[in-house]
Design goal:
This protein is mainly alpha-helical. 36% of the residues lie in helices and 7% in strands. The longest helix has 11 residues. It has a two-stranded antiparallel sheet with strand order 1-2. The radius of gyration is 15 Å and the shape is elongated. The chain has one domain. The relative contact order is 0.10.
Length: 59
């Protein structure tokens, strides 16, 4: 681990700042606002639909 709370798994480090580099600026954000959290939440809440969609997609 690098010792930097903004890299790695910030939700697992109490009191860590989570930062976003979107749109060319550095801003603090909440864990629930991160893209990785939103994708994970979407998969957990809609697992069957997303899996079916992925399996139906042709490469």
């Amino acid at each position: 681990m690098s010792g930097r709370p903004d890299i790695g798994f910030p939700a697992g480090i109490p009191g860590a700042d989570i930062v976003s580099f979107d749109n060319g600026t550095v801003t603090r954000c909440g864990y629930e606002e991160t893209e990785s959290y939103q994708v994970m939440e979407m998969f957990i809440n809609h697992r069957e639909q997303l899996t079916q969609r992925l399996l139906d997609t042709e490469m």
